[in-house]
Design goal:
The complex is a heterodimer. Chain A is an alpha/beta fold. Chain A contains 15 helices and 19 strands. By secondary structure, chain B is mainly α. Chain B is globular, with a radius of gyration of 18 Å.
Amino acid sequence: LFGFFQGGAVFGTALAQLRVASSIVFGTPFDLGSFDRLIEGVRETQQEFGGLGSGAAELLGPPMLDEQTRREVQLRRFRTQAERAARETAYYGALFAHLGLDPARLRYEDIRRIPPTPKEALRADPDAFVRQTARPVLRAMTTGTTGWPTSVAFSAYELQSTVALGGVGALASGRITPEDIVQHSMSSRATVGNIAFAGACARVGAQVYMAGLVEPAHALALLAERRHVPGKKPRASMLVTYPSYLGQLIEIGPGLGYGPADFGLESILAAGEMLTEGLKARCQRLFGPTRFVENYGMTETLPFGGDSCSEGHLHFEPSLGLLEVLAPDTSVPAGPSEAGTIVATPFPPYRETTMLLRYDTQDVVRLPATAPLTCSLRNLPSTSNILGKLRLSVRHDGGWTFPRDVQEALEAVEDVPLPARYGFWAVPGGVAIEVVARSDTPAIRRAVARQLEEHGVPLRELRMATDHGQLRHPIPLRCDLREASFSSPGPSPATTDMDRREGLVVGEVR
Amino acid sequence: MLHPAFYAVLGHAAGTVLLSWCYFRWYRVTRPPLGVFNLRDVAIMVVSIVLVPYLYLALPTWLVVGLVVVGVLSVLYLVWEPVLRARWGIWLATLGLAVADVGAMHAYGAVSTPFFVINNVVLVLSTVGVANLWAQSGMKARDAAVLGAALAFYDFVATTQLSLMTDLVARLAELPFPPLVAWQLDGHGQWLGIGMGDLMLASVFPLVMRKAFGRAAGLTALAVSLGALAAVLAPFGWSVEAFPVMIVLGPLMVAQYAGWAHRQGTERTTWQYLQAEPIVARSGPRG
């Protein structure tokens, strides 16, 4: 009985943990009930003890695999996915027949013989990628900033497991707590991401509200609104949004009289676009000290994506999918310190409906140098943060200039309003850049040129504009996916600190 | 005049309850990093308690011994870990006790004073460890009361209506680490003892009551546990009958829980308990 008396403690959670872990290790479908019990166990632990015990992160996190094991595990998963794709999808059935490859006998080296799947192919015929035996319940579409929206079909199982996975991740990392109030200011068309995030918040026990991409003044009023929900923080404590929309909030906030005392934001999850150091620095002035959370994900490869570490790398969990980085010119694997596009294969048991093998995301990253990493996620495959879309990057005589190079420089200049609106293209010897600034003066031009030079951009022409309608080749920004609203963009009818300072409110509104 | 065995067994039982209480305030065991002991665990435990005795009666002796040895070693390691800290010291103490238990049994027999002395030490320490593991894993007073009520019913059936407990004790008493704190009554193989399960419930309840409702509730539960054990053991100072101890302990646990819950409402979490009554650190919290 001794062993039982010891092992019996928290037996239910341990069993759920074992079932989830076995699915992760062997790639078998998740038992969603076990996910629920695991999440419940994590919440109960945090509530009972005020935090998780030592070793919990290892239990909830991805398995640590050495290089050889990682390759074996990934090859098995890739094979499984390739067999399903060849057998049950029109696109890959034809492709494997054409290549003469047997997906069941693929070796790791053979993976490169499968040509990357271009975004255009998925966009042109999304149903050709859906398994015949799948049960799709959602057709998720991208926001289409790079053209016609891309469609990806998801099953109920995929949505539920993605939500559960997000919930476990949020709880384990402590990024979202049950006390949090989360303002979700993303495009309503980013359906699957919205479902996954809101579902994860619900699992954690945080309160989320979908503010959407409404007038920035309205979004600020919502953030400043005082809340009186038992057990919750007094104001929105987390903001989830696109960096460009965050830029708009930062730009208009001071003009509306807002300052750090009006908000209770503790963290900002910036997704869907590049977040620059300049924007982060300027953000602190409006919202005060705030923790930034950056990650990388896209509808097509969900839930496979990158988590950023403390040193700014993106790390990709090997059991979720296969990460490849291919050089933009040659489509061969990029070497250390070289830039390339992310080519991703989402794996089972997370992906079962829309099969994508070697999907070319067109998102450019740089591989780390050969020196070993020292960050907390160093055991996971890693890249730099996203450098921009390949389509928007420019090849010139001196090599490549990526959107991040330009944007980091521009958003560091105070006289460039946020979000930086700009365009750039190749000219002999470097790039020409157009940018919206507060005014076109020699001093601002010098400041912009200096920053560009410091960020390694070979500037040959600089064109200043004071309105983004004047730009010839503007980079698309998601903040322009603005949603209409019947509500007035003014302050919330509930009490805000700004109201109090201005004596607008005599009685507290609850 | 009560038999000296009564004082010996009651002394060990009281020592177990008091040592558990002190250990709870002095040391943090390595609890599972995820999960809280809850009603689901209680249900799993009750089902297992019903099934495990049949398993132990059905399994071959070598396998039963193997399971018991692994269990005892892991519990002893758990108890010593925050006390001794150095790994070699923990293993030395753990293996030393285990070897002494097995050695005494071989050298002096299963019903002998030397064996009872050593096995009682092992049992006391093991009970302290398990009681603290449960309590420090977040077991609620409510869950302990539910477990007490369920075991009261089970103990009554298994001890008085079936021969299960008698058969189990008879089987395990011949093996190392019998789960009994016991003492010789005479030179003819008679002994007086109390089962580890009863001791465990008597020990864990004051801990979870203290965590849930404060020091007064814990001390009350401790006094009630000791009084109940004395009351139950006293009539057996001159008898060898089996008695289902949980039919006394179980209802007392339920009554205490109901009274304190009615008086104070919600139970404190471990975090709230530690905020209100910080541990005097003899060993750093381990989780």
